Amino acid sequence: MVTDRSRGCIALTFDDGPDPAGTPAVLDALRAAGVRATFFVIADRAQRHPQLARALADAGHEAGLHCYHHIDHRRVGATRFVEDLLAGLHVLRSLGFAVRRWRPPWGRAPAEAFTAARRHGLRPTGWSLDPQDWAGSSAGDMAGRIGGSLGAGDVVLLHDGVGPGARRDSAAETAALIPALATLAKARGWRLGPVSDRSEHAAMLRRRSEVTSPA
């Protein structure tokens, strides 16, 4: 089996956008770092800010569905969840996104929600590292919080939007964290990218393992 972490990919993901208070700064930082990412979009916000939503696609980033309304799917019935899911998918696909992934608000949903998402062609996507940028920490503090744990195959949860419960009014520190993570990844022989790059890399390693494993 291939276990060389130096060839690893780390996925950067962003929730709760598009948001004029955060998305432009995050896109600028990603562009400067030469990094693509996956954005889990609130469809209601995409409707209100279609130019920002299209800017994600124009920059080569992936879009997944977060929700239409930022609701706790554990507290609504199956009918309400499916309505939210379908409304969100309709908006994002009408904007030209090929949506294949879904991350529920707060990462929480009942089993029925995951079943419904898969039925509509969506792969639930979680995370492995959370620097809690929504809490208003500085980029330096966040880098220190996750830097020692950051490894190949990780999925990093960040926010380009100022969502419910956030203790900040912009995503400036999130944007400032991006070059720090890019530098750290490069120094360790890893690369940052969207979730699909991480999945494709893992598949490549599995295929290589199958070829090199003794019979």
Low-confidence stretches: 1-6, 201-215
**Series of secondary-structure elements, N-terminal to C-terminal:** EHEHHEHEHEHEHEH
Classified in CATH, the superfamily is Glycoside hydrolase/deacetylase
Structural class: alpha/beta
The general outline is globular
Instruction: Indicate the CATH architecture.
Output: Alpha-Beta Barrel
Could you please describe the fold and organization of this structure?
- The protein is of the alpha/beta class.
- The chain has one domain: Alpha-Beta Barrel (TIM Barrel), CATH 3.20.20.
- Helix content is 44%, strand content 15%.
- It is built from 8 helices and 7 strands; from the N terminus they run βαβααβαβαβαβαβα.
- Strands 1, 2, 3, 6 and 7 form a 5-stranded parallel sheet that branches.
- α1 runs parallel beside α7.
- The longest helix is centred in the C-terminal third of the chain and has 18 residues.
Give short descriptive properties of this protein.
single chain; 215 residues; alpha/beta; TIM Barrel; 5-stranded parallel β-sheet; 8 helices; globular; disordered N terminus; disordered C terminus
